[in-house]
Amino acid sequence: MTNLAPDPELENELQEVYMQATHWLQDISFLETETHFFRNIINRYNVSAAVPSRKAAFDEKIQAQEDRLEALKTKIPEFLTFLEPYFGNLKKEMNLDFLDRYNALKNELDDLFSALRLTKKELFIYTESIMSPAGSPAA
């Protein structure tokens, strides 16, 4: 583990990392809204009536994404708490562990955004395929 000397520029960078992580909490809230929207689409357009196995596949995918969201809702505040001692009067010796933690969270959030975009696309394509031309759900 490499310890870093106190550096005001580094502290500014850490504050930016901290701010980015706080914005992730807003991203999580947005993604939760998206998963609720997906469930509403499934219920509104009666996806299960068209192909029950397809509804089960969407339900499973959305549940896995909701589970990942819940995990991130815990991990992000833990990361923020981890960073706090590096600021203000509560100085502690810095090491590069925070970079690994930051990158892991960022990658996890980026992957989740990608997965939700793909789910949305698949769900919209599927919903359009089961709707009648008049715009009402197919029987």
The major sheet is characterized as: 2 strands, antiparallel
Low-pLDDT runs? none
Biggest sheet strand line-up: 1-2
Question: Percent range for helical residues?
Answer: over 70%
Query: What percentage of amino acids are in beta strands?
Result: under 5%
The helix-strand sequence is EHHHEH
Structural class by helix and strand composition: mainly alpha
Round the Cα radius of gyration to an integer and report it: 21 Å
Mean of all residue-level pLDDT scores: 82
Number of helices: 4
The end-to-end distance, rounded to whole angstroms, is 62 Å
Shape: elongated
- The protein's oligomeric status is single chain
- Please count the beta strands (DSSP E, at least 2 residues each): 2
Please write out the topology.
Blueprint: E1 3-4, H1 8-44, H2 47-50, H3 52-83, E2 94-95, H4 97-130
Antiparallel strand pairs: 1-2
Describe this structure in words.
The protein has helices at residues 8-44, 47-50, 52-83, 97-130, and strands at 3-4, 94-95. The protein is mainly alpha-helical and 139 residues long. It has a domain at 58-129. The mean pLDDT is 82. The protein is built from four helices and two strands, in the order E-H-H-H-E-H. Strands 1-2 form a two-stranded antiparallel ribbon. Helix content is 77%, strand content 3%. Helix 1 (8-44) packs parallel to helix 4 and helix 3 packs antiparallel against helix 4 (97-130).
Features:
two-stranded antiparallel ribbon, 4 helices, mainly alpha, 77% helix
Brief overview:
This protein has 139 residues and is mainly alpha-helical. It has four helices and two strands, in the order E-H-H-H-E-H.
